[in-house]
Structures are given as C-alpha cells and as structure tokens.
Amino acid sequence: MTSVAPRSVPAGLDPATFSIEAIDSDTSAFNAQLAQALASVPPVWEVPAAETRAAREEGRGAFGPLVLSDLATNRTIATPGGPLTIRTFVPETVAGVYLYFHGGGWTIGRAHHSDARLEALARSNNLAVVSVDYRLAPEDPYPAGPDDCEAAALWLIDHAQSEFGASQLQIGGESAGAHLAVVTLVRLRDKHQLRPFARANLVYGCFDLAGTPSVRNAPADTLVLPRQAVEWFTAQFSIRGKEQDPDVSPIWADLRGLPPALFSVGTLDPLLDDSLFMYTRWVAAGNQAELAVYPGGVHGFNVFPYRLAQQANQRVAEFLKS
Fold first, then answer.
1. Residue 220 belongs to a domain with what CATH number?
2. How many Cβ atoms are within 10 Å of 73's Cβ, its own excluded?
3. Count of the separate structural domains present in the chain
4. pTM (two decimals)
5. Which terminus of the chain is less hemmed in, N or C, by CB atoms within 10 Å?
6. Which of 91, 104, 98, 76 is closest to 177 using CA atoms?
7. Residue 6 lies in a domain
C-alpha cells in the first residue's frame, strides 16, 4: 500500500490522507497485532479503575511492562490542593522546560508511565521535562486534576529558572493530558493574566467532552478507545451537565492569545474530530497551529515501537525544538 506522510495543513485537508489506501503495510500489521493483544484484556469500562491501575503497574495488558528511566526523579511541591508529585527529567544541558500531562482518561494514567518517551525528548531537545502526577478520578473527580495541573504550571513559572536554569517554557500532553494542557493555558490567561508558554504539543486530545461525531459514530470494534470507553472515562471524571463549560470542554473556550500548537492524531482514532475541530478553532482565534494526521493511527499509537509512532514522536521533537 502507498504511504501518505503526515502533513501540516494550513488551508484544507487532503481526502487521500483518510483513505484505507493511505495506511501502509507496517501500520496495518501493527494494528492487527494490537487487536489480538487487546482481545485478551477486559474492557476498561467493565472493571474498577483501581484494578486497571494495578494491572498496568504489574505490566499486564496491551502496553506491556513499565520501562522506568534512570534520569527521572520524583519530588513533591506544595499546592492549594495539597502535596503534588512531579517527575522530572533533567539532561546535562537545559535549554528550556517542558511541562507534560499524561493521558489515561483522567482516571488510570500516572506520571511514570511515559518515562521512555520523556527521557528521549529531554535528551534530544535539551529540555528539562516536568511530568505531573495529578489527582485521578473517580476518587478525585473534576476539578481536582485540572486544579493540580494549574498549580504545577504556576509553580514552574516561578521556579523554572532557579530549579532548571532555563526560563523558556513549553507545555503539552496526550489524550486527557492534551485536554489538561489547553485547560491550563486558558486558566493561566484568564485567572492569572499569564501567557508564559511558547509552544503547545497537543497529541490526540479530548477537547469536547460532550462527544464529537467521530466519537459518537465510532464502531464497537474501534481499537483502544471505543465509544463505551470514552463514555466511561467522562463518567468517572464527573462532568455531567457541564459538558459545554469551557473549563471542561476547552473547544468552547475563547482561544485567543494562546501559543503556537501542534495537533497530532491518527485517522483511526475516535478523537480525530477533536483534533480537527480544535485545530480549526485555534487558527480561527488568530493563533499559529500545525496539524499532523497519521493514516491508520489508533488512539495512543505513538507509545508503541513501530514506524508510524517514530514518525509522530520525531515530528513532536522537531516542533518543540524549532
């Protein structure tokens, strides 16, 4: 099959990007392997969140054993919500600081689940990376997680130079983490009159918690994140009746004055529309933005070791370096 490379799209989208023919053989083979692995794992909405977390810590499930970085260090900072753990990756040379929020549907992720990618980014870009271990639902529903992310950003603004020797700041995250990154940017602007971040890396984010068409129409056999999973995660987050609140669904927010952003998403991700719609709103608000669409990419595709993931992660590194 012919591969269609991801692209920046300043004006319009190429329909060929979304065709089955655009999915290369390596990606198709990976998706088939992933489907087989997921078949042996109970759906996330059928087990308590605590059980899913325990399985992840034990290395069970489709994501395999955790790989921890020797570069990573945990520390605790004081916040209005109580002590908050941040996980830092500090290379020998630091040119900037990247504030990162992990994914997991606000419910099952942890800061140490992204060690390999964050260490690679820290070393390749000379970035001190600060990964936030924010509070999780359902034990701590909305707004606990967003509050922790806001507090971590405020701490970093005050301490980046003294702690890491650099004041240039960037922000980002994946899935729920991308959602939290945008919520944090809007809160900083509106509550604190701060616009400290130079770039935003937003990877397959969930920006409309009421559900975009691609979420609502996702088939039952969707890999990684079928519609039932999206509905379960948002239920754990406890935002019923608040779906159009800009602090919950940032696609409804005033997006003016936000930093240049890179939106990355795969064509087989039910959150595809979230990235397409948010990219358009970002640009319409007068901000700079790039859109990278990956043929055949499923939700979470960039965390796995195959070619499409490597392309996406390289694109992110180049964006944060430029």
1. 3.40.50.1820
2. 11
3. 1
4. 0.95
5. C
6. 104
7. no
